[in-house]
Amino acid sequence: MKGKKKDEYIEFLIKLLKEIENGSISIVKQDGVVLNIIAKES
Q: Which helix (H) or strand (E) holds 42?
């Protein structure tokens, strides 16, 4: 991974972390792969 692709991936991870932090349940599509993220409430 290099250049633009790497930057996009980092942005994606940051966005994902923020959504988890917010406690939201989201289904995110990245590169055709569906990730089901469920943030547990503390």
A: none
Three-state SS for 5-41 is: HHHHHHHHHHHHHHHHHCCCEEEEEECCEEEEEECCC
Q: What are the pLDDT digits (tens) for 6-41?
A: 888 888 888 888 877 776 655 666 666 666 655 555
Cα separation, 35 vs 13, in Å, equals: 12
Instruction: Reduce the DSSP state of residue 1 to 3 states and report it.
Output: coil
Alpha-carbon distance 6 to 31, whole Å?
13
